[in-house]
Amino acid sequence: MHNPFDVQTPENLSTEDMISLFVSENTDYYQIEKAGHTFISGPRGAGKSMIFRFLEPDCQCRHTGKKLSKLEYYAAYIPIKETDLNLPELARLQAKHATIVLNEHALVIHVATKFFVSLAERAPIEGASEKKNIQQYESFYYDKLSKLLFRSGWKDELPSLKCCKNIKDQLKITLSLFDDVFGQLNHYMRKLSFCSEVLPYEGTLFGYTDFLVPLIKALKESPFMPEGPIFLLIDDADNLNKSQAMVLNSWVARRTTGFLCLKVSAQEGEYKTYASVGGQRIDAPHDYSEFNISDKYTSRFDNFKVRVRDIIAKRLTHHGVEKTPEDFFPVNKKQEEEIKAIGEEIAKVWSERGRGYRPRDDVLRYARPEYMKRLAGTSKSGSTYSYAGFEQLVHLSSGIVRHFLESASMMYAETVSKSGGEPLSSIPHGIQNQIANDYSNAFLFSEFSKVEKDEGDPSLTLDKPAKLKNLINALGGMFRQILMSECSEQRVFSIAFSNGPDMEVQEVLSLGVKYGYFHRSTIGNKEGTGRVPLYILTRRLAPTFKLDPNGFAGYKFVQNEAIKQAMYSPKKLTNMVQKQGFETVMSTGGQGSLFEND
Amino acid sequence: MTSAKGLPPLPLAELQKTMSLDLDLFICSASFESRSLSAPKSLMPEKVKKVFMMRNENVQGKGVEYGEQILAHFRKRAEMVLVSKTSPIKTADGLLAAISSMELGDNASCLVDITTMTHEALLILFRILNKQLPKSVDLKFVYSAAKEYDPGKADENKWLSQGLGEVRSVLGYPGEMRPSRKSHLIVLVGFEEERARKLIETYEPAALSLGIGELPPVNESHLRVNRSHFKRLLSSNPNSIEFHFSPTDPLAVRDIVLEKVKLFEGFNVVIAPMNNKISTLGVALAAIENPEVQICYGRAMAYNVDNYSTPADYCYVFSLPSVI
Questions:
Q1: In terms of DSSP bridges, do strands B309-318 and B167-169 run parallel, antiparallel, or are they unpaired?
Q2: Is the Cβ of B171 closer than 8 Å to some Cβ of chain A?
Q3: Chain B interface test: which of A77, A83, A511 (most B C-beta within 10 Å)
Q4: Which of A246, A263, A293 is the last residue of a domain?
């Protein structure tokens, strides 16, 4: 039985699957669609590649019902894999001017090739076999492209288009031409391998302004191309080396946005540099607009919920299940009734003991934490709290659609294995809760071992992954203590720095952001004079630390030294917090010396 | 000396005896593994005219100590060549300068101990030897076997390296990549499952072939560990093609790899040799015979420097006459 929540690489999804699965509302899709250069950052699984895939012409033609030539823009997908442009021979040219020139050449060939791959594989070209269109492409090929090639140093005759029966055949021959240009670079690399002298490069040499820009301008004049701008969707640009990133930044600095816009995605904090070849930095909003794809969740949960709801509803319909997401992922009714009853108690005493402006505010803020406290009080463990229910699961996915889909896929598989092959109409709350807990624990334990393996340094007693794990455990434990307390803000998932963070703390937090354990944002400082970094613990870990993932969550100001202590001796710190309270220990520097003995 | 059934093991005590003449050049590598001492200490210093001992510039663990032992063993005949894990150019330049300084006459004899070189350094050295040495040189290779990897640990807990750093093509083996094409990745799987998994994730190949070194003769305990890693890799890559090779027969490895290359015509082919060094030389032979294929290397973030292996008391000696 096919699982409706399976996650596939967007690059490999068919047009049909994209149309039935992609949800454009409440994403940054409409921002990216605007003309202009754009940088998009965010963690893996947040949906960057999915948006890029949907912008491609096959999806756009199907989505809008328009012909290719009538689209608002043409978006070509340019993936950058770590191994595409990582040529060790180029290191021979380091600190020599040619390194930039040849890196730009390599990048231009890559982009131009992928552009033609896009035309060959993703563009529904009308009348691709019509004589006039074939002739039109011939004229582009023999007049414009050949001139650009000869100007760039190409010396051979162009491969003939004579036997081509349609434009797709012509595009394949054009692609072989670009392969040959890359072959020249490859040949040069071979010669560089074991030669320490500077060897002159005598092959074809492409640049952005003298080749790529006029090439794209010329292609834009083809009758099958839209009149609007061309978007180059450069995905995973963090895989470019520093020289290539500088080259790309120089392209961004050029004013080509009238007809050519660069849409650059990178994993947060991983893009090598924002300096251009001349040394000047490119800046937002002057040179480009930028946004973080996960900010939508951290700042506007409702938007994210609506988006996930639409995605899940589409997947259920696609699978023939006529249920709403809320019905398919039901809450634990008994638990919700008990929470409702606690809410009524709170509302009743609001006039005497209320803390919010309205009874409803107090109910929303305190009913669920109170329920969790009572559970802990009776069973000495909060583990019986149920994380079932669509909305709660959306909160647990912490702004990453893939997190929701992965856990939903496991819930589905588990339910199927217990249903004896019967069609499913919902996922029992027990299974939802069990998988939500497993998924959370796996993130902190088995998945964390990947961070340890990939980023660990066994020569250190306490390396960065170990510090990160300590910090997560300390914060998770302290947030649980706050939830169990009587303070006014009981749901806390974030910390902001009243001083710092210093380099060591920042490196550990950045590692956490890279692997999705934290989201990074900013918030106004205590003095109201500027902004400070805010780090939000992923709500995916709520079941592991028995936290309440629902609704608005507050943040706490912390001192850099306190966070450092959490990295070095988390147990000592959490014990102190339990005895003295969070504010005393974490916010006012009462945690004592970092290296005091226990 | 190679055969279809793999190389015959040779007791280390008999290594010197198999060298019919004095050695004009011996190239070896010092590492944190005590195995790096096995072949050098089995040779009589007075029977060797010149020794180049490769050593990583930031060698960890006992690498410095073992390097000093090798240098002391051969005394003034020995010279250290520093190589780099992060800069293949530095490695190539150091080796090239050393080998170019030798004037090896007709029928000179040369022995290379490949045991503890990194795969990348070995491949670069092989390319340089192929380029620099006259064809008349009698070139042999020696590989000292390991008795056990990560000794004392249960099979499921054994590890040799952690993490995957930069992934790059190996200097001298760039292949003839065509950006418009899809890629076919061929991995010769060894102990380092995690590194192989990350490498596959990095390439996201359209086609994947996974090879296991289980054709005899093989060390049964190594094979048991390899099999469990291999099974896990297969299950996480259900569309991959499985093949088998002999880890002690470089010519057979070359042939099977060249056969697998043909499976996907019109694809860029990248090979990741992650099994032992003998099979890595087989991959080098394949890439030299078919220059369209690229060899890649994924640097580990950390090695199990304190408990990598224990040495066995035998080695394999072989030559590759078809190349030099």
A1: unpaired
A2: yes
A3: A83
A4: A293
Question: Mind listing the domains of chain B with CATH numbers?
Answer: 10-148+310-318 (3.40.50.11700), 161-303 (3.40.50)
Interface touch B88/A91, C-beta < 8 Å: yes
Top residue of B178, B270, B292, B294 to mutate, by most chain A CBs within 10 Å, is B178
Please provide residue A518's backbone torsions phi and psi, each rounded to the nearest 5 degrees.
-130, 155
Residue A4 counted as domain residue: no
Q: Within this chain, do residues A497 and A409 fall inside the same structural domain, yes or no?
A: no
Within 8 A of A183 by CB-CB distance, chain B residues are 176, 178
User: Nearest CA to A158 among A191, A129, A180, A131?
Assistant: A180
Query: Would you say residue A535 lies in a domain?
Result: yes
Chain B residues with CB inside 8 Å of A87's CB?
168-169, 174
Q: What is the pTM for the complete model shown?
A: 0.78
Structural tokens at position A528: 């109201």
One domain, residues A379 and A359: yes
Structural domains of chain A, count: 3
Q: Which residues pair with B211 in a beta bridge?
A: B188, B243
Q: Do A86 and B166 touch (CB under 8 A)?
A: yes
Residues A315, A276, single domain; the answer is: no
Chain B CB contacts of A81 under 8 Å are 202-204
For residue A546, the SS3 value is coil
* Contact check, Cβ <8 Å, A83/B202: yes
In total, the C-beta contacts within 8 angstroms joining chain A to chain B are: 98
Burial of A458 by CB count in 10 Å (0-12 exposed, 13-18 middle, 19+ buried)? middle
Helix/strand/coil for B171: coil
Instruction: Please check whether residue A23 lies inside any domain of the structure.
Output: no
Q: A6 in a domain, yes or no?
A: no
Residue B93 has its nearest CB partner, among A176, A179, A196, at A196
Residues of A in contact with B131 (CB under 8 A): 194
- Of the candidates A28, A7, A18, the residue with the CA atom closest to the CA atom of residue A399: A28
> Which of A118, A179, A185, A193 should be substituted to probe chain B, the one whose Cβ sees the most B Cβ atoms within 10 Å?
A193
Q: Which of A116, A186, A455 sits opposite B163 (nearest CB)?
A: A455
What ipTM does the predicted assembly reach? 0.81
Please tell me whether residues A233 and A173 are part of one structural domain: yes
B221 touches chain A (CB under 8 A): no
B164 CA: distance to closest CA in chain A (Å): 6
Q: A89 contacts in B (CB within 8 Å)?
A: 171, 174
My answer on whether A171 and A280 are in the same domain is yes
Interface subset of B 252-271, CB within 8 angstroms of A:
270
Instruction: Show which of A293, A312, A331 is a domain's final residue.
Output: A293
pLDDT per residue of chain A (598 residues) written in tens, 0 to 9: 477 887 777 887 889 888 887 877 656 777 888 889 999 988 777 788 889 999 999 999 999 999 999 999 999 999 998 778 878 888 887 766 678 999 999 999 999 999 999 999 999 999 899 999 999 999 999 999 999 999 999 999 999 999 999 999 999 999 999 999 999 998 898 888 888 777 888 999 999 999 999 999 999 999 999 999 999 999 999 999 889 999 999 999 987 778 999 999 998 778 999 999 988 999 888 889 988 876 655 566 677 888 889 999 989 998 889 999 999 999 999 999 999 999 999 888 888 877 777 888 888 888 999 999 888 876 555 458 999 999 999 999 988 888 899 899 889 888 887 877 677 899 999 999 999 999 999 899 878 877 887 787 767 778 899 999 999 999 999 999 889 888 878 888 999 988 878 999 999 999 998 888 998 888 887 777 788 888 999 999 999 999 999 877 678 888 888 899 889 988 888 888 877 777 777 766 554 444 333 3
Whether residue A485 is found in the same domain as residue A379: no
Shared domain check, A226 and A363: no
Q: Which residue segment(s) compose the domain that A372 sits in?
A: 301-450
Contact by Cβ (8 Å): A148, A178: no
Stretch (H or E) spanning A183: helix A167-192
Which of A190, A238, A453 is best to mutate for the B interface (most B CBs within 10 A)?
Answer: A453
Q: CA-CA distance, A259 to A256, in Å (whole number)?
A: 6
Joined together, the tokens standing for residue A262 give 């660069």
Distance CA A57, CA A75 (A): 6
In angstroms, rounded to a whole number, what is the distance separating the alpha carbons of residues B281 and A544? 49
Q: Is residue A444 domain-shared with residue A467, that is, in the same domain?
A: no
